Amino acid sequence: MDVLTGWWDDFFWGSVVVAQVFLASLVLMVIFGLLGAAAKLSSNRIFQKIANGYTIVFRGTPEILVILLLYFGSAIALTAIAQVFNPEIKFLDVPPFWAGTIAIALIVGSYATETFRGAFLGVKPGSIEAAQALGMNGFQVFFYVRVAEMWRLALPAFGNHMLSLIKDTALISIIGLNETLFVAKQAIATTGAPFIMYIMVGVIYLGFSTVITLTVMTLEYYGTRHMRSAT
Fold first, then answer.
1. Does the pLDDT value for residue 229 go beyond 70?
2. pTM here?
């Protein structure tokens, strides 16, 4: 383990970056997934087609390609817009953090769209009718019945999406984000010990995955406690 001497701090801060990307992309992924599910369940055909196109494109395109296209494409687009106001601007660089975060959120959000759509369809009509019979208005029925039951139904698959999300953060190293895999590549160039450095990255990601898995299991346990009580 002597080859890791001097690299512990770098791996620590690389892990912090991974956590930041994960949390930011998780929020965006939920937003994209819910918007996509709402569009697919909408009676508006235009919204349905946009949502179908979104899921087809991002589920059918290699993830690393999406990251590269979004990173370089957004830089070109921003530069073109900026040059309209200031022709002297040559090039605007896009922060790898946000380009990568949005890219993986869009990718995993396309899968979450189908998860949320199926979960909304799985809400029992009897639960909605019972809530209405108790005098709940449409807003209360949506949030206290539809959304609450949807999350319980979606949670197992949503846990898999979270695991995909944390693993996809490693792909952002290709656009220069200083996360653990990027640190490992730098360490390998200096130490010439690829096996140890990649094992280190694997241990870090395994730790993140374990925490996510335990969190989802805990949420599932508390989300189904009423079913165990009824039994």
1. no
2. 0.86
Under a CB-based contact definition with an 8 Å cutoff, are residues 122 and 60 in contact?
Answer: no
Could you tell me the sign of the dihedral formed by the alpha carbons of 13, 17, 20, 26, in that order?
Answer: negative
Distance CA 51, CA 70 (A): 19
pLDDT tens digits, residue range 28-67? 999 999 999 989 988 899 999 999 999 999 999 999 999 9
Q: How many CA atoms lie within 13 A of 85 on its CB side?
A: 4
Q: Which of 130, 174, 113, 120 is nearest to 150 (CA)?
A: 120
pLDDT at 1: 58
Write the burial class of residue 209 (CB in 10 Å: 0-12 exposed, 13-18 middle, 19+ buried). Answer: middle
What is the model's pLDDT at position 106?
95
Residue bearing tokens 């979270």: 162
DSSP-assigned letters across all residues of the chain? -GGGTTTHHHHHHHHHHHHHHHHHHHHHHHHHHHHHHHHHHSS-HHHHHHHHHHHHHHHHS-HHHHHHHHHHHHHHHHHHHHHHH-TT----PPPHHHHHHHHHHHHHHHHHHHHHHHHHHTS-HHHHHHHHHTT--HHHHIIIIIIHHHHHHHHHHHHHHHHHHHHHGGGGGGGT--SHHHHHHHHHHHH--HHHHHHHHHHHHHHHHHHHHHHHHHHHHHHTHHHHHH-
